Amino acid sequence: MLINKKKLTAIIPARMGSKEIIHKNIKKFYGKPLIYWTISAALSSKYIDDVIVNTDSELIASLSIAYGAKVPFLRSEELSGDNVYSIEVIKDMICKCNLDDWIIMLQATSPLRNYIHIDEMCNLLKNKNYKSIVSVKNTREIPSWQYSIKNSYLIPLQDKQSLLRQEENKYYTLNGAQYLASTKQILKEGFINDETAAYFMSEKNSIDIDNKFDWEIAEFFLNKSGAPETMNALNI
Question: What is the pTM of this model?
Answer without folding.
Answer: 0.87
